[in-house]
Amino acid sequence: MRTSPPRERADAARNRAAVLDAAAALFRERGVEAVSMDAVAAAAGVGKGTLFRRFGDKAGLAVALLDQQERVLQEAILFGPAPLGPGPAGAEASPRDRLRAFLAAYLDYLLAHLDLVRMSETASPGARYRIGAYRFWHRHVALLLARREDPVADAHTLLAPLAAEHARAVRAEVGDERLRAAVLALADAFTG
Amino acid sequence: MRTSPPRERADAARNRAAVLDAAAALFRERGVEAVSMDAVAAAAGVGKGTLFRRFGDKAGLAVALLDQQERVLQEAILFGPAPLGPGPAGAEASPRDRLRAFLAAYLDYLLAHLDLVRMSETASPGARYRIGAYRFWHRHVALLLARREDPVADAHTLLAPLAAEHARAVRAEVGDERLRAAVLALADAFTG
DNA sequence: TGAGTAAATGGACTACAGTCCGGTTATGCC
DNA sequence: GGCATAACCGGACTGTAGTCCATTTACTCA
Hints:
The structure is a homodimer.
Chain A (H helix, E strand, L loop, with lengths): L9 H21 L6 H8 L3 H8 L2 H22 L15 H18 L1 H9 L4 H4 L1 H13 L6 H9 L4 H28 L1
Helix pairs in contact in A: 1-2, 4-5, 4-6, 5-10, 6-10, 8-9
Chain A binds a DNA duplex through α1, α2 and α3.
């Protein structure tokens, strides 16, 4: 039995790269909000059908663009140095410190790419909670909250203020620093 | 100087009532998601222009439909008996108890009208934080958190898991009871 | 009562997300 | 190289949110 590796066809690869490049450029120039999928397709020299079949929807395109940076953060969490990562055996950071480190790092990532993350979370309804990345963050936080009564539910609660939509609104009202402080205060309240 | 009261014209009042009735009926029958604004306009015997000028957008229509119930909750908070309301002077409930009461009451309201609230919050981007109701809840919670370092920022954090989108996703995963418990646990953590 | 006017109306129109499918092209195999 | 086929392509098409404005209608006041 040969589970043949269905390699990506050359034209498909070329088109995917063209779309990602074009999208990144357009988003940079005009802002994420103002760019339509038609515009992305046109700029990439590709039909709409291709665009949608490959990325599913607008949220999927955003996820693809964020993929690289997201992976970096995820690997730092899984394998990197403490306190963000687990650190060397026998000298692990405390859950409290790991949680704070995660929230700080995630906020950096979020605030740096707010519009794009927002698009990935809100372009289609419920998108945020379906994305693989959310599952990853949730699992991580739940593990760090293992000593609480309901780590799974509490992890969702802790992730709620990290929604792009929420961060955007709160940032606009109180600024980055107070948003950061509030999220860390929440973590402390949960691991106190 | 006469700041004359620009009374609503009879045809306008009639049409508004027709729209609200039609929308309520359609939402009940087919579900909020599945009803288009065209359908509402047609069912109400009204043009699309009328519908949109009066309610702004889909979120505005949802807000108008929720208005009544929302008012009841808001008045209970402002003037009702403790612990939800302030109670009689000299025998006020503690901020902690009032916060718990508010969250429990709000969750009742939210879970009872989840789809409609969700539409009011997500139909247009950022809608949730612009609605007057959100300002009200936020102010109330911030007052109850007066002893914390940054009540304004913390109040936003506390309201984050009450977003319809969040409640919907978490409810689907862990059910109503654990969602409730998690939100109350958060309140306790903040007023501990 | 009837003319003047500001408000309200409604449907044609635009823009955009997302679907569909007949035609095209890269790739594996002989 | 040439053929079979599965993957890919792109643009026409649909459905929906929201806008626009020429026309109509309800109220005001003389």
